[in-house]
Structures are given as C-alpha cells and as structure tokens.
Write a structure and sequence with these properties.
This protein is of the alpha+beta class and about 250 residues long. The protein is built from 8 helices and 10 strands.
Length: about 250
C-alpha cells in the first residue's frame, strides 16, 4: 500500500463505527491511484473490530457511487474517475478536452445504407432512404469510453462517407465542412447492460452497467439533421443535473 495511504490504527468512540469506517475508506481512496487495491473486508473488520456486514455495507455504497470497483475473486479496487456529461450541447471531443483528457476514436464502419424503420422515424424520412452511417469506438486517454453510431441523410451529407473521421469531432466536421448548424438537440438516456460485441469493444465484462444516449440534432427550424446513439461505460461516465423548482 502507498505510504500516502496509511490507515488509522483504530476507531474512536465518538461516532458510529460505520460513519468512521466510511470516512477512512474515502480518505484511502483519495490517497490511492485508480486500480490500486483496498484492504479486504476481513482485514478491515479485524483491524477496526467491526462486523463484516458493516464493512460490506460501506464498500457496497462506495461501489454504487462509482468510487470503487469490485472484481469477483480478486477484491475491491479504486475506480477510474468518472467523466460527467456537460450541461451544454457539446461533442464527445469537446467534453473530453474540457476535462483534460485526450479524445480518440476508432472507426468501425462508415458508408451509405438504407435507413431502417427506427432511423427513418428519428430523421423523419421514409424507410429505405439512403443515410450515412458512422460507427466508432470513442476513447479518453487511450481507454474505450463509448461506442457510438451516427446516421445522417445522404442527400445532404453523402460526402461524409469518405471523410477521415479517425480522431475527428463529428460536430466540427458538420459545422466546418458542411456548414450545418444545430442549436438544439433532443436527447433520451436509458440505463442498459453492456453485452456481446459491445462489451468486447468497450473492454468490460458482459453485463456491466452502461448509459445509452439517443440524440437527435435539430437545425434552426427544428428539423432533424442527424440521429446518433452512444453507449457509455457506466463505470467511467455519469450525468450531473442542476434543477430548479418553479414556484
């Protein structure tokens, strides 16, 4: 264990043991680096003379908050810091750079194909209308963060099928190359399990939690310009909201 992460020798009698243990674990997590192991439940229970159930409850709460990660058969580890979604409409590239992370992408597929029923409905097109489909894995500091697919009407954005999008911001390409403007977007977010090929591409165990965003970019007249879905790793991404209650 890091010398920065020395544990207190014992608990005091001034406050509940669970609260003290939680504070100790939070300080320990702050002192360690992502991926560093935490002491086992048995070690913590014996050191502080508390029930294993108490230790497990506090670690479970920290795992639910994304502070630690449990790995079956190996133990509990400090989790990677999560990236919070920006409040303003911004691209993945802009989000990552604003947080001091290096954005990247791997293009998995790019071309023109007929719109299926779902894509056609989102873009207000007839089914079968040609659309440009771009499928990429988005990364932050070299680690997979999200899987995304974008669909755009080919009659306006057909040249996008030949555009070099490796490491590029789709928003920037649309604004600079195609002079598109999208002042607003409709977005829906749902919690999902990451399974199958998606889990392999994002380098997570099947069944891990994910956040799936469905986004429609709208022009000045609120006509759809693009539809995209993005599947983010739930252990690396979070949504923060500030809401106001109207009188």
């Amino acid at each position: 264990m890091s010398p920065r992460a020395e544990l207190p020798r014992k608990l005091s009698r001034r406050s509940p043991k669970g609260e003290q243990l939680r504070a100790i674990l939070e300080d320990l997590i702050d002192a360690l680096a992502p991926g560093d192991p935490l002491p086992s439940e048995r070690e913590l229970a014996e050191r502080y003379d508390v029930a294993r159930m108490t230790v497990r409850a506090e670690i479970t709460a920290l795992a639910a908050e994304g502070r630690v990660e449990r790995v079956q058969g190996r133990g509990t580890f400090v989790a990677e810091a999560r990236v919070a979604q920006a409040a303003a409409l911004s691209s993945f590239t802009e989000d990552m750079r604003a947080r001091g992370l290096k954005p990247g992408s791997e293009v998995l597929g790019q071309g023109v194909e007929p719109a299926d029923d779902l894509v056609a409905r989102r873009l207000r097109l007839d089914p079968g209308t040609p659309v440009v489909r771009v499928r990429r894995v988005r990364s932050a500091d070299g680690e997979p963060m999200a899987l995304e697919e974008a669909f755009l009407p080919a009659d306006r954005f057909g040249a996008l099928a030949e555009e070099d999008l490796k490491g590029a911001s789709l928003f920037s390409v649309l604004e600079e190359r195609f002079e598109a403007r999208f002042p607003v977007a409709d977005q829906q977010v749902v919690a999902v399990e990451i399974v199958g090929e998606d889990a392999n591409l994002l380098r997570v165990a099947p069944g891990r939690a994910g956040l799936k965003f469905h986004t429609i970019l709208l022009d000045e007249d609120e006509r759809p310009l693009a539809y995209a879905w993005s599947l983010f790793r739930g252990d690396r991404y979070e949504i923060r909201l500030r809401q106001e209650r109207r009188a």
